[in-house]
Design goal:
About 40% of the residues lie in helices and about 15% in strands. The protein is α/β, with parallel strands linked by helices and about 375 residues long. The strands form 2 sheets. The protein has a 7-stranded mixed beta sheet with strand order 1-7-6-5-4-2-3, sandwiched between helices. It has a 4-stranded antiparallel beta sheet with strand order 8-9-11-10. The chain is globular. Bound molecules: pyridoxal-5'-phosphate.
Length: about 375
């Protein structure tokens, strides 16, 4: 059975949920498997909606041969399982995304892959952790939720000199702010779930490597370990990507304005935004990000849990939800969400107090956002 033929072309991207694809003959199947013909065999190995989405992200990253997977964590899993083996060693930032941290702390060691977590704002700490068997270094440019800026230039130079692959999780910065290959990345990963898809309705990841053998190993790990993305999620993410540049630019403008607004409100202890002169790595941020400081802002109010509760309750129009990169602004409280697994002392060491909040700024009218945050912060001030 075939699609009805016609001269007209769809504007909307087709959604193809088929799990299997018929081939023309055993010779035809040979051609597909040997790469002499383009096409599909079985969706776990690849399907049109994943390929279309991957091609769009490749174009944004200036990369070739990226692979879309079922989540950002699936992409990181495929990189680790595809590129490492027992006896290898992996270094990661001690402020990585929570589940990446857990993977390095608990799970890779179970597979006899050694790991070390270090403060990646200082390349000397990374250098101190290098071993002869170090295979990969996993970094995020801007950390969550403390908005620290990793020493990418220093670590990239080390990685090059020592033949270690630098893996950059570009989720926060996106290719709009940070072209990871030009800063020395060998492998780029994304949680497409966040800013790229942008509507909190698709869970997806992406990974790409400079070395074609690494790309093949990542794709093979995805097919073998079953890290396949859903065609429907890929289809939604592709639609989200059409507006990515517009959303990103607007959210970034809003974030810069909101950070300055919050900093001037009574009861604010600190505001963290890479574009502000009072950011601890403001010079590095300027050099690395060249004015593209992103949509993430963190701030701290005086007072404990009571002040935090009052703040959230006084701003009902900003969803209190532990995600980021949605088209709308969301607010999260790391002490009770992303960092609840740490002890209070562990959180305190990172500066994550009960009064610490992270904002993923969206595309709303900035005047409305300013009012909303002023109300929340005033309510916290009354309590704290
Ligand atoms: C969310 C996130 C991930 C994980 O992505 P999922 O799509 O939720 O699996 C990885 N890295 C960073 C920086 C993230 O924000």
């Amino acid at each position: 059975m075939a699609w009805p033929a016609g001269e007209s072309l769809p504007i909307g991207a087709p959604l193809q949920p088929s799990v299997v694809y018929g081939a023309e003959s055993p010779d035809g199947l040979d051609d597909l498997y040997e790469g002499r013909a383009e096409g599909w065999t079985y969706a776990r190995e690849g399907h049109p909606n994943a390929a279309t989405l991957a091609a769009r992200i490749n174009a944004l990253e200036g990369a070739e041969g990226g692979h879309v997977m079922g989540s950002g964590m699936a992409a990181i899993t495929a990189v680790m399982l595809g590129l490492c083996q027992a006896g290898d060693h992996v270094i990661g930032s001690d402020q990585l995304y929570g589940k990446s941290l857990k993977m390095l702390r608990d799970d890779l060691p179970r597979l006899a892959i050694g790991t070390t977590l270090v403060d990646a704002t200082d390349a000397a700490m990374v250098e101190g952790a290098l071993r002869p068997e170090t295979k990969l270094i996993l970094l995020e440019v801007v950390s969550n939720p403390t908005i620290r800026i990793a020493d990418i230039a220093g670590v990239a130079a080390l990685a090059r000199a020592r033949g270690v692959k630098l893996v950059i999780d570009n989720t926060f910065t996106t290719p709009r702010a940070f072209q990871a290959y030009t800063h020395g990345a060998d492998v780029i990963v994304h949680s497409v779930t966040k800013l790229l898809a942008g509507h909190s309705d698709a869970t997806l990841g992406y990974a790409v490597a400079r070395d074609p053998a690494d790309r093949a190993a990542i794709a093979m790990a995805s097919a073998t370990w079953g890290l396949t993305p859903s065609p429907f999620d890929c289809w939604l993410a592709e639609r989200g990507l059409f507006s990515f540049d517009l959303r990103y630019d607007r959210a970034e403008d809003n974030a810069a304005a909101l950070a300055d607004h919050i900093a001037d409100l009574p009861g604010i202890l600190r505001v963290l935004y890479p574009g502000r002169a009072d950011h601890p790595e403001s010079i590095r941020a300027r050099d690395l990000l060249a004015g593209r400081y992103g949509n993430m802002v963190s701030f701290e109010v005086r007072g404990g849990r009571d002040a935090a509760n009052a703040l959230v309750r006084a701003m009902p129009n900003v969803p209190f939800a532990p995600t980021l990169g949605d088209i709308g602004t969301t607010l999260s409280h790391p002490a009770t969400s992303s960092h609840r697994g740490l002890s209070p002392a562990g959180r305190a060491a990172m500066g994550i107090t009960e009064g610490f909040f992270r904002v993923s700024v969206g595309v709303e009218d900035i005047a409305v956002l300013k009012e909303e945050f002023a109300a929340g912060i005033a309510a916290a001030h009354d309590v704290g």
